Amino acid sequence: MLGDVSRNLVELVRRHHALDAPTALDVLKEAVELRGEVTDADRREAAARSGLPEAAVHGVSTFYDDLLQPRGARHVRVCTGTACFAATGDAHVDALRSAFGVGLGERSSDGSVSLAETVCLGFCHSSPAVRDGDTIDAGPDVVARVLADACVAAAEPAWESTLAEPVLTRPGDWSGLARVLDDGVAPEALLEDVKAAEIRGRGGAGFPAGVKWGFARASEGDEKFIVANGDEGDPGSYIDKYLMERTPERLLEGMALAGYAVGASHGFVLVRSEYPLSKPALEEAAAAARAEGWLGDDVRGSGFAFDVTVVEGAGSYVVGEETALLACLQGLRGTVSARPPFPAQSGLHGMPTVVNNVETLCNVPFVATRGADAYRALSPDAETAGSKLVCFNERFARPGVYEVPFGVSMRWLCEELAGGLRDGRTIKAVQIGGPLGGILPAARLDTAFDFDALAAEGCMLGHGGILAFDDRTSMRDVARHLLRFGAHESCGKCFPCRIGLQRAHAMFAGEAPVEQARLEQLLETLELGSLCAHGGGMPAPIRSLLKWFPDELGLA
Amino acid sequence: MTRVAVDGIDVEVADGATVLDAARAAGRWVPTLCFDERQAPFGACRVCLVGVEGAPAPLPACTTPCRDGMTIATEDPAGRRVAAAVVELVLSELPEPPAAHTELAQVADALGVGEPRWPGATHAPQPADTRHPYLAFRHELCISCGRCVRACDELQGTFALTATGRGFGANVAAGLDEGFRASACVSCGACADTCPTDAITEVSLLP
User: Fold this and answer.
1) Residue of B nearest to A529 (CA)
2) The pLDDT of residue A479
């Protein structure tokens, strides 16, 4: 039997879940909220209440950022994401550190204040961002407001569609599920529609959603699950955040349709804890949907049963990988498992599970309402079907979330739609699709925004975040910033990523020259050896920098 | 049954067998560090990379299922190059070279990996944890292969051990990191038996 997440622990979790026991992670999160840290007494309590062995609970408690950074009476979380780095070069981090007299991850000796690092708060349109208690503030003067204890909630970004008829930025209305149930569309027929629509996964890998659903539908299991991946961890991306907060009913409808097509009666959304407004928005929408009969034991009298539970993560980038996400959902350490088995065969609680990105699921209601042909027609000039949400960082003149067709040029996106850079700055390079995506120099902006065209440039579409570095940015600092993130977020499971990213970061951390041959050997080891896309993908932006900005890297 | 060819040797393996199973059935050596045939494959060490015809890059033998007609090359140049580079990285995280009798030292030898060329952080040396009468812990020698944790889980069913931390700080611990004695450990010794580095050893009672 393949599959390395402990089958014994998964079975323990499944049996306790059936008895409504909390997960160990739930209990540990409560402890941090209450007491500002996790003690051994908390770990013992978590073991007793969750049914997980004490050692396993200890393992969980040493994995997640939220459980590891102690909290003072006032807990200040500073965003160290790439958009904030591009805005200030980390000056906001240094300013807070020296003003509070505590380091990142530390609490003052009198317990009055603590400073924690968080990546990222999703306010990349208004960097830098800081979360002070429950308030997320952002913008150039945020440090002054934090120090004056006068934080205000940051302004929300633009949320617009460039399509003649918006698809993803419109509020959801359950019309897709209504059509399927009212017209008596068979689950198999809906599955065929989704396959015909060629919805590619929007979380990074671009895998066809319909194919994934087909595997899960064909798998044997007493129960099946739909899991929405709301762990939008890519620094610089804040698309799923606003899908969850502004159109949560569209996501819930997409999940219900997936459940109908696959034969699942329960769904989970795993929302990252860096987005404190997302879980309440989804829960409110779910409660409204239950009241209106769109969720529940007998949806609109059709006999179809589907409901959704919203679960919050605890600070880990790699939990965005689907096997790690399922481990987190079960309250275990968020480490990656080798596939096969794929989640569609053996996922949550060992049952067939569809794991789709939030935006992917938000595409489904349109297909259910209007059909596959209309969906494919949304991007007439591209191979890829449907539309895509993109978002821009604060360096741009008009940052925000925009719905666009595939196939437009990166230049149009950056210079027309987002208006070029602010303050008379010029684009030096853009990183697309998160920290595992390549970096496109300004000279290559005529590249089309689509899966294959970006791949040909060593880039990827990823989540759709577009992050500009302006002409003042040191590309060696970019490499250092990205590799520091990569090393910090490595789950520690596979050896190349666990040790290799540490070594890669060390190569750029000081001022010493970087031995290019050694670096390239290390990148190959990461690319070919890593277990998941984290270690496998971190070399991509470094390769871009080697190609386009070799003179800035201090190579030897 | 599934038929595959390993380095030109035809072998039949049970359906569901892995490429590593097939290589071993063919009598071909594939380096491994996190694999123990008594445990489910883990896929963490990435030194068992082999060539599979038609695959664009080497694949981990321990977690790749055999397909009928598969052609496997255990000495794939890219696979071996990466395996050696990974072993060098592993040696670089230890504060001292592994003892010659350990599996890690033997795999490093077989792959021709000598002194690691990576300066920088190693696991911090600390006094051996000898609070348990039969089992000694040296955390700085741990390479997070997970074999001890899985032995305790899958073979003994005791769950006294866990992986801890993440990234370069990953390690293992017994119970709430209070040592074996205060944990649920039943002193079976399965962890020490499988450890490839002497991070966990049995304390010999005989002279």
Assistant:
1) B46
2) 98
Q: Which of A43, A494, A499 sits opposite B93 (nearest CB)?
A: A499
**Closest alpha carbon within chain B to A10:** B153
The reply to whether residue B177 touches residue A58, judged by beta carbons under 8 angstroms, is: yes
**Dist CA B32 CA B30 (whole Å):** 6
Q: Where are the domains of chain A?
A: 7-62, 74-155, 160-376, 387-470, 475-552
Report the pLDDT value the prediction gives residue A410, as an integer from 0 to 100. Answer: 98
Q: How confident is the model at residue A204 (pLDDT cuts 50, 70, 90)?
A: confident
Report yes or no for ipTM above 0.90.
yes
**Does position A401 have pLDDT exceeding 60, yes or no?**
yes
Q: Give the residue from B32, B46, B152 with the most A CB atoms within 10 Å of its CB, the best one to mutate.
A: B46
HSE-up of residue A111 (Cα within 13 Å, Cβ side):
4
pLDDT 10s digits, A235-290: 999 999 999 999 999 999 999 999 999 999 999 999 999 999 999 999 999 999 99
CB-closest option in A490, A496, A527 to B167: A490
Closest CA to A489 of A235, A136, A230, A207: A235
Which CATH superfamily groups domain A74-155?
A: Glutaredoxin (3.40.30.10)
Q: Check if the beta carbon of residue A117 is closer than 8 Å to that of residue A489.
A: no
Smallest CA–CA distance, residue A338 to chain B, in Å, is 6
Q: Which of B90, B176, B191 to mutate to test the interface with A (most CBs of A within 10 A)?
A: B176
The beta-carbon neighbor of A498 closest among B40, B49, B144 is: B144
Domain A475-552 top-level CATH class:
mainly alpha
Chain B: give the shortest CA distance to residue A523, in Å. Answer: 10
Closest CA to A141 of A90, A78, A92: A92
Give the one of B40, B89, B159 whose C-beta lies nearest to A53's C-beta.
B159
The arithmetic mean of pLDDT across residues B23-37, rounded, is 98
Q: What are phi and psi of A193, to 5 degrees?
A: -60, -45
- Asked if B89's CB is within 8 angstroms of A500's CB, the reply is yes
Please tell me the predicted confidence (pLDDT) of residue B207.
64
Please count the other Cβ atoms lying within 10 Å of the Cβ belonging to residue B109: 12
Nearest C-alpha in A relative to B163: A59
| Among chain A residues, CA nearest to B60 | A529
B106 or A5: which leads in pLDDT = B106
Backbone angles phi, psi at B105, to 5 degrees: -65, -40
The CATH classification number of A160-376 equals 3.40.50.11540
A-B C-beta contacts closer than 8 Å: 168
pLDDT tens across A442-482, in order? 999 999 999 999 999 999 999 999 999 999 999 999 999 99
- Which tokens hold the place of A454? 């970006």
Question: What CATH code is assigned to A387-470?
Answer: 3.10.20.600
pLDDT band at A1 (very low <50, low <70, confident <90, very high): very low
Compare CB distances from B89 to A54, A56, A503 and report the shortest one's residue: A503
Q: Which domains does chain B have, with CATH numbers?
A: 1-121 (3.10.20.740), 135-202 (3.30.70.20)
Q: Which residue has the tokens 């649920």?
A: B184
Instruction: Tell me if B159 and A494 make a contact (CB, 8 A cut-off).
Output: no
Say which of B44, B58, B121 has its CB closest to residue A528. B58
User: Strand A400-405 vs strand A158-161: parallel, antiparallel, or unpaired?
Assistant: parallel
Average pLDDT over residues B161-187: 96
Please count the other Cβ atoms lying within 10 Å of the Cβ belonging to residue A293: 13
Mutation choice for B interface testing from A6, A10, A25, A58 by most B CBs within 10 A: A58
CA distances from A426 to A88, A413, A420, A423, A471 (A): 16, 15, 7, 9, 6
pLDDT (0 to 100) of residue A73: 97
Alpha-carbon distance B152 to nearest alpha carbon in chain A (angstroms): 11
- What's this model's pTM, rounded to 2 decimal places? 0.97
